[in-house]
Amino acid sequence: MSLPSLETTPIPGLVVVRLDRRDDARGFFKENWQREKMVGIGLPDFGPVQNNVSFNSDRGVTRGIHTEPWDKFVSLATGRIFGAWVDMREGESFGATFTLEMDTALAVFVPRGVGNSYQVLEDGTAYTYLVNEHWRPGITYPALALDDPTVAIAWPIPLAEAIISEKDQHNPALDPSTAIAPKKTLIVGALGQLGRALQADFPGSDLVDLAEGSVGDRTVARLDLTDAAAVAAWPWHEYAVVLNAAAYTAVDLAETPDGRRTAWAANATAPATLANLAATHGFTLVHYSSEYVFDGTAEEHTEDEPVSPLGVYAQSKAAGDIAVGTAPRHFLLRTSWVIGEGKNFVRTMATLAANGVSPSVVSDQVGRLTFTSELSRATRHLIDSGAAYGTYNLSNGGDEMSWAAIAREVFTRSGRSGDDVSETTTEAYAAGVLEKGGPFAPRPLRSAMSLAKIRATGFEPEDAMVALDRYLAD
Q1: Is the domain of 350 the same as that of 382?
Q2: Which segments within 81-229 are labelled E, that is strand?
Q3: Which residues form the domain of 49?
Q4: Where is the active site (predicted)?
Q5: What contacts 180, CB < 8 A, 6 or more positions away?
Q6: How many independent structural domains does the chain possess?
Q7: What's the predicted TM-score (pTM) here?
Q8: Mean pLDDT for the stretch of residues 436-459
């Protein structure tokens, strides 16, 4: 058998690892923790930050059953134990148990929310474990009685003869009402069009934005990621996933002095803060970027194309992408021409059609629409499917189209003739804006992105025109 190897147990996520222990006349050597090999056999890349050792001088010492809010990798440096684990998490496996006699050739990965306990079978047993959060004094963690009749652990040494701490002698019985809830999801930018869409696929998420507010009956708390004190006070350890839907998207105003500062704060500084927090607290960071990070000269943009941003907005988004890439667990979704709840290009064209206006729309910018519902659906898919972390392009599917062609589609669906939409160029449109004294940011002329990578994960983007029909019908 190739070692290390992994064996599953009746408790979801709890796995036994058989270590590659090398014995000789002197004793033994083993790689107790080797990240590349452990992850390679299927162990979660849980990111340990602290190593603890519990030395047990006498046979019969019994500790537990403790349920701490972190993942744990337990093993022995010396001796033998009888280990017992109880699933204390909400769900069908609540109360499930697993026991195992362990020596120094075995280790067990214990996921957050699973109660951990052991009984020492040899004098001088050294129990060692890695955890992925720092221990904090003064915090009470859930516990379970060692003699709980429901789980009925068959301890090899009767508990009446065991050495048990005063505290562990008074642990409570199993109670479903105290089951441990999973870590939560946080949506940053919950009041924006993408943030609102994400709430449909991530119900029950905590919601924050730069200002307090509400979405339906849900309260949106205030959190400014540029406020160091507010960031430090936020309970980041409670989250498994953070969805960063916040962004500064006023591409033209970003060319002004005030806009430049705001764009960099929202699109670069805030994502960098979240990336650092993701590394510290171990949550998965999902961030949404833009095809504006490219100069638009490629026929089709792929995920590995080097960034080449043209304007301030684009530069700030590219900087944010680089920062997010440092988070150990991240999904970076690059998207284009986003359409969601509130004011946007499609709504504007529909209003113009209804009011009898015949607009002139640029025809030399080509790409695909991305509906926020599709972005949200793709996010849910990537997280649930176990897709590899990294960068993914995401837009709706179908043919590439110009803004003018999309405007015509909106007009025909609104009862107007597509011929009522005339064409102009980006250069001519920019000249008109600049002539009136307004700022104008350079645009990539080709925004179409390859969708091959996300399709390879099993996600099929919906045709943009099918999504447009539904959007206009709502």
Answers
A1: yes
A2: 81-87, 97-102, 106-110, 114-120, 125-131, 184-188, 206-209, 213-215, 218-222
A3: 5-178
A4: 66 (proton acceptor), 129 (proton donor)
A5: 67, 69, 88, 89, 90, 112, 113, 142
A6: 2
A7: 0.85
A8: 95
